[in-house]
């Protein structure tokens, strides 16, 4: 018995003196009593720290979420505002690329001008031009015509260039009574003719290179071009076709007034535009209808108007027209010094016997009837005076002083008395 107990005791691993009754039964873990009973203090502290960590993580996540939502809202709002906000007006910068000539048409307003500039790559947008032009009163003074500007320039610079009169090109004026060729007086003074005026108007400098047409190029174009290409109106075709001097056959068909030509145009193109627009101006006076009422063709009315222009002052246009018609009716020579001078290299108020004796297509001392062509560019006023001549039986007239006072008479005797007055006043003084 003792051996068995000893064996069991040795195998139990328990201290001596404790029997099976004391240690053979499994016991529960000890329980804490007092404050915090049921949970160890270090466990509570650990759990509290864990809760604080979770709260902090939650707060961080919340703040991150709020931040992300704020950023998102910002970009959404910005995108909305940007969509509603107008884009910057497209405009060029710098001093431009190349010189270019643009045309402002009759009746063009600001938007029309802007469109022309955009089409020629002068400015980038019409909006930029209209913005730059706002408040610029001088823009209203822009006249129809041609202007030298540069491509790809800021709209404000374009406005400056268009309002700079020095940059207007191709503009010139034809005075009343001017003829195609230059007029040289007996004193040597030269009055530029229409061909010279047109040639001067084509002179231009583009990108540092100057060009200028020669007056003779226009004369050659008139002499060699088809009448259709020259813009000759139908009512003048037959007479123009018969003209003996091809270079002068469109005399009178370019009206007096202010003109604009494209410096880059060919001589034929330039002449055609001038003749076409002049024909419209003449037709607006009723030349095709009223000429018939005075017994002449429209082209003959234009010839008479050119004589009226060269022989009288505006206040006498209608009277001189009546004298011409009266002489034509009785088959009397017109005998106008202006028709003699037209064929001369030099001109003067009083012509010589030799000059008056020369037979030319225009010299009315050497033939009856009208000159073959007009002898100048008449004004619209001269044409209206021709179409509406004043009533009277006058056959003669003479300017009696240098102020232009003109006397109209029915008899040769009375006319000669006034001729003597004119001579005494130096009207017929010759430079020869």
From TrEMBL:
Keywords: Cell membrane, Cell wall biogenesis/degradation, Lyase, Membrane, Transmembrane, Transmembrane helix. It comes from the Bacteria. It is found in: Cell membrane. The chain crosses the membrane at residues 59-81. Pfam families: YceG. InterPro entries: MLTG-like (IPR003770). The keyword Hydrolase does not apply. Its main location: membrane. Residues 1-29 are annotated as: Disordered. The keyword Cell membrane applies. It catalyses: a peptidoglycan chain = a peptidoglycan chain with N-acetyl-1,6-anhydromuramyl-[peptide] at the reducing end + a peptidoglycan chain with N-acetylglucosamine at the non-reducing end. It is a single-pass membrane protein. The record marks 311 as: Important for catalytic activity. Signal peptide: none annotated. One of its GO terms (molecular function) is lytic endotransglycosylase activity. One of its GO terms (cellular component) is plasma membrane. Its EC number is 4.2.2.29. Belongs to the transglycosylase MltG family. PANTHER family: ENDOLYTIC MUREIN TRANSGLYCOSYLASE. Functions as a peptidoglycan terminase that cleaves nascent peptidoglycan strands endolytically to terminate their elongation. This is Endolytic murein transglycosylase.
């Amino acid at each position: 018995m003792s051996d068995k107990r000893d064996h069991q005791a040795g195998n139990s691993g328990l201290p001596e003196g404790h029997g099976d009754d004391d240690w053979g039964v499994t016991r529960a873990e000890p329980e804490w009593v007092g404050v915090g009973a049921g949970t160890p203090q270090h466990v509570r502290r650990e759990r509290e720290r864990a809760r604080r960590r979770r709260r902090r993580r939650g707060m961080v996540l919340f703040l991150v979420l709020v931040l992300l939502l704020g950023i998102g809202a910002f970009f959404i709002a910005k995108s909305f505002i940007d969509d509603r906000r107008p884009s910057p007006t497209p405009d060029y910068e710098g001093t431009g690329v190349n010189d270019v000539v643009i045309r402002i048409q009759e009746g063009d307003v600001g938007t029309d001008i802007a469109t022309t500039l955009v089409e020629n790559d002068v400015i980038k947008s019409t909006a930029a031009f209209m913005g730059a032009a706002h408040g610029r009163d001088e823009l209203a003074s822009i006249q129809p015509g041609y202007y030298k500007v540069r491509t790809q320039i800021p709209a404000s610079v374009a406005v400056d260039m268009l309002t700079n009169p020095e940059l207007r090109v191709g503009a010139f004026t034809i005075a009343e009574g001017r003829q195609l060729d230059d007029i040289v007086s007996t004193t040597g003074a030269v009055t530029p003719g229409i061909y010279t005026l047109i040639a001067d108007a084509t002179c231009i400098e583009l990108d540092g290179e100057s060009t200028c047409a020669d007056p003779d190029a226009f004369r050659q174009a008139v002499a060699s071009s088809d009448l259709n290409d020259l813009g000759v109106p139908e009512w003048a075709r037959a007479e123009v076709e018969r003209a003996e001097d091809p270079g002068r056959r469109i005399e009178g068909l370019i009206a007096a007034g202010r003109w604009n030509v494209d410096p880059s145009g060919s001589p034929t193109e330039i002449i055609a535009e001038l003749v076409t627009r002049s024909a419209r101006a003449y037709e607006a006076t009723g030349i095709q209808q009223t000429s018939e009422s005075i017994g002449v063709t429209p082209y003959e009315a234009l010839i008479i108007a050119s004589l009226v222009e060269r022989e009288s002052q505006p206040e006498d246009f209608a009277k001189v027209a009546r004298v011409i018609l009266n002489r034509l009716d009785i088959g009397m020579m017109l005998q106008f010094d202006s028709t003699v001078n037209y064929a001369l290299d030099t001109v003067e108020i009083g012509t010589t016997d030799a000059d008056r004796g020369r037979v030319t297509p225009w010299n009315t001392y050497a033939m009856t009837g009208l000159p073959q062509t007009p002898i100048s560019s008449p004004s619209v006023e001269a044409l209206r005076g021709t179409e509406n001549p004043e009533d009277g039986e006058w056959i003669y007239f003479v300017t009696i002083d240098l102020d232009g006072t003109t006397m109209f008479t029915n008899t040769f005797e009375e006319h000669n008395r006034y001729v003597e007055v004119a001579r005494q006043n130096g009207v017929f003084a010759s430079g020869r």
